[in-house]
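name: query_chain
kind: protein
chains: 1
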Amino acid sequence: MTEVRELSADEDALWRALGRVVHVLPRLLDEDMTKATGLSMTEYAVLHVLAEAPEHRLRMTELASATALSASRMTRVVDGLARYGLVTKEKPPGDARGSAAVLTGEGLRRQREAAPRHTASARRRVLDHVPPEDLAAAVRVLQRLADHTSGS
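structure:
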């Protein structure tokens, strides 16, 4: 087995802080969103990605990838949103096996209505605590981590 290098004090501090953020922040953002809009953060993320997609439609596999959800989790979320009339599922032409999620007019309205509340939560919970002079470096580090973890 390869020898593992001990963490430095700064590395340990970063690792512990990251652990707290990873465990607490999703719950706080979800609570903010649910209280303000009735949508979970996952539901909002799906509506947001579809709102930005061409013709407000994406194959389920692309939608799962864009939101970092498993295919089975995406199916459950989209089925739930469909029950509320916010999305529909359609068979893409020429593809008997796949399906696509399509944002409805009501889904687009709900996403647009929720967007300012999402932004307010993101600012209050994260962005207001990152000094402007540190923002570019934070983006680089987090993007590198996101790229590395999405390829795992």
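note: The mean pLDDT is 94.
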